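Input record (Table S2, row 308):
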Amino acid sequence: MTENKPIIRVKDLVVSFGAFRAVDGVSFSVRRGEIFGFLGANGAGKTTTIRTICGILNPSAGSVKVDGHDISSSTAVLKPHIGYMSQKFTLYPDLTVRENLYFAGSLYGMTPAQIAARSHKLMDFIGLSEDLPDPVSHLSGGVKQMAALASSLLHDPELVFLDEPTAGTSPQTRASFWALIRRLAELGKTVFVTTHYMDEAEYCGRIALMERGKIVALGTPQELKAQFFPVKPLELSFSKPVAHALRQALEQAGISAAVFGTHLRVRAPDRAAFEQATAPFRGGFSVRETEPTLEDVFLQAVSGRKAV
Ligand code: ATP
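Output record (adenosine-5'-triphosphate complex):
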């Protein structure tokens, strides 16, 4: 693949199922070696976008280029360069991990000797035993996901799509998985990952937030925080039991407030409106500015309200 050009260029992409536009005019590019995160609620269109970039679905309109090649007409050329760990199906449950890897390798025309050498290296990289005797259906969720990652990397692709790779796994597995993702990027791979976990999104170089088929925000985590929160969120702690009434007063004033444990987290771009709404409760709470999180950004971006 060629250096110095974006590895993925998506322009005005539309993917329709009948009259329904699952992807509705999406444009973005992904740089080589980047960890690019795709976030969005269920049904936002993330998987459909990925499947189109991988050449599994055809665009209804617009263009998708991978390494300068139009994906629709160059799927065979590009297939060896792309790895895809899909959300639902990557491994055969009745086969062992080793059998799955041999099957996956054979689909890419690898010889048994090549598969053996590559499996050995990969399992070492991932930290899994090559000789797990049980069929995949008997393995824990975390081990299954690691094995699925191995399967998607077997043919040594430069561009790897991971569709919710950590969904439903333990915090330890998530941490291990992200350590592997970072190492893949250090090795020069481009990683395109979807997640619902906002803490994971912090590890991405850039993030696209998708909502109902459209990208509603795109940038580094820092850029998105600055874009959506030029005025920092507030954290309110209570010395009197006013939380419920205060929250109602804020919401009546159109100010978003969410309960976080013993605090209220408040997005109040208009500080005068905040002061006015909270005036009757003065003395009942203390307030401090906090850094926005990506969860704040996500909620702000998909709420349809004007960014603060
Ligand atoms: P999730 O986080 O739940 O995986 P997503 O953002 O990946 O969601 P998609 O799977 O891309 O979303 O789905 C986008 C929309 O397109 C959804 O409304 C879904 O029901 C619809 N959709 C996806 N595939 C098809 C299909 N083959 N036929 C009809 N509708 C589809």
